[in-house]
Amino acid sequence: MDSLTQIVLGAAVGEAVLGRKVGNKALLYGAIAGTIPDLDVLASHFTDTVSALEIHRGFTHSIVFSIVFAPIFGWLVSRYERCKDFKGWSLLFFWGFITHPLLDAHTTWGTQLFWPFDLRVAYKTIFVVDPLYTLPFLVCIILVMCYKRTSEKRRFYNRLGLIISSSYLLITLILKGLAYTKFEAALKTQQVQYFDLDTRPSPLNTVLWTANVDTKDAYLVGYYSFFDTKPITFYRYPKHHEYLGDLTENNKVQRMIAISNGWYTITKTNDTLYFNDLRFGTMGIKPDPNQFVFKYEIQQDLDGTINFVETPKNSEDAKGLVSELWQRIKGN
């Protein structure tokens, strides 16, 4: 999830653990704990794109990290703060650390919760930024800050924020199931032969859902809004995996394929190859095989070294996407 959401969740967890003892400092340290796992993004400054993608939501988003580092941070804070409750601070950091990947597991990218085992948990029920999850939670946390640490209203609003946000996550599981059955029925009606069906919410909402469908030579992408009245239309994106040729034997290419869970297409422009991660869709609702959210140029040095360079995105693309999303959410 986005940084603001993780800060809000971490603050609420911190308040639940130590709010009665240390007041707003519990919110502050909880927010810090909720942010720390995402520091793995700094790896992009020190390593190549493929390695950085592998590191992201890896070790720092694991149960192992939470268990090992919570007492370390707990000890450091207990030495610094007036409250010397080592156990309390350790629990605050543990729950701040562990709830971060538990929430991230609901997104499309998922998280390696069980690191070092190569298993990424991704329920794909919520987009990385979802106002319906974050804003009510944020309002509750702001209200918490308005009361003294001994106030019952402070604990009431904190519990309310946790209950509302957690209930919303449960609802998204139901919505995903409903959307899945709609896509499944549409494929059956249209007599589409497929190997796999993968669903996820579109950006910023859980009303409009997207499906990736794996067929022999292409992926089909469809959209379904709960306000739809017409049949689902699937758009075809040729795989063109053959464009890779001998590059399929390259270690970095194989790792990128693993990162995408096999959901990728290859496009070619003026002899330049691009690797498109299909899991995160395109920069718009209208079909465009050249405008994927995560698109990487495959560069080959003179010595044969392969590098993946993410193509830049601009604000105009984002504005267009939001406009198209709003229109599509209202139904087809």
How would you describe this protein?
The chain is 46% helix and 17% strand. With 332 residues, the chain is of the alpha+beta class. The protein has two domains: 3-173, no CATH class; 190-332, no CATH class. A four-stranded antiparallel beta sheet has the order 1-2-3-4. Strands 5-6-7-8 form a four-stranded antiparallel beta sheet, with helices on one face. The longest helix has 38 residues, at 152-189. The mean pLDDT is 93.
Order of helices and strands: HHHHHHHEEEEHEEEEH
Structural class: alpha+beta
Structural Rg: 22 Å
Report the principal-axis shape: globular
Strand content: 15-25%
Give the fraction of residues assigned to helices: 40-55%
Number of structural domains:
2
Largest β-sheet summary = 4 strands, antiparallel
* Strand tally: 8
